[in-house]
Amino acid sequence: MAKASHPDFDIKKASAGLGLFAKRAFKKGEELLEYTGEHISHEEADLRGGLYLFTLSDDIIIDGKGRENIGRYLNHSCDPNTEAVIEDDERIYFEAIKDIAIGDELTFDYGEEYVSDIIAAKKCKCDVCMG
Predict the structure, then answer these.
(1) Please, what is the Cα angle at 121 between 36 and 38, to 5 degrees?
(2) Which residues are CB-neighbours of 117 under 8 A, at least 6 positions away?
(3) What is the Cα–Cα distance from 62 to 122, expressed in whole angstroms?
(4) Is the CB of residue 106 less than 8 Å from the CB of residue 74?
(5) d(Cα 10, Cα 7) in Å, to the nearest integer?
(6) How far out from the chain centre does Cα 13 lie?
(7) Which residues contact 89 (CB under 8 A, 6 or more apart)?
(8) In the β-sheet with 61-63, what is the strand arrangement from edge to edge?
(9) Between β-strands 82-87 and 17-22, what pairing exists: parallel, antiparallel or unpaired?
(10) Distance of CA 11 to the CA centre of its chain
(11) pLDDT at 40 over 80
(12) 79: pLDDT strictly greater than 60
């Protein structure tokens, strides 16, 4: 399956695998992109497992494993430039929390649980932790 393409973002190699990079500048507060995928129950998410599961509400998880979901390419950072916003338990989008320059990798903080359960075992590879 081919990688998704987008006029505002490039998907290319980053320190933690593939990453999402800005093709244009973004201002702090700007909505960047939506996290998309199949809406499934928490029970189904537990059965499927996977790295691209994003909790939308108490009832719904978004399974963003499809390559058309460019949000899956945002890597973790301990000093992120975006944050995830959950809107009315209906959608998740990413918003710039800093100005983002052309060529910058878009990152967000995956959260304490994910970092301790998944990232810590392999060591964090964000710019802050890698020096």
Answers:
(1) 15
(2) none
(3) 25
(4) yes
(5) 8
(6) 15
(7) 56, 57, 60
(8) 38-40, 61-63, 53-55
(9) unpaired
(10) 12
(11) yes
(12) yes
Residues labelled catalytic: 35, 110
State the Cα–Cα distance between residues 125 and 105, nearest whole angstrom. 13
Expressed in angstroms, the distance from the first to the final Cα of the chain is 34
Average the pLDDT over 94-104 and give the result: 98
- The pLDDT mean for the chain works out to 89
Residues near 128 by beta carbon (within 8 Å), at least 6 away in sequence: 77, 78, 79
CA-wise closest residue to 78 among 49, 120, 33, 36: 120
For residue 1, the model assigns a pLDDT of 42
What's the token pair of residue 13? Answer: 């190699």
Ordered by where they begin, the domains of the chain are: 9-125 (2.170.270.10)
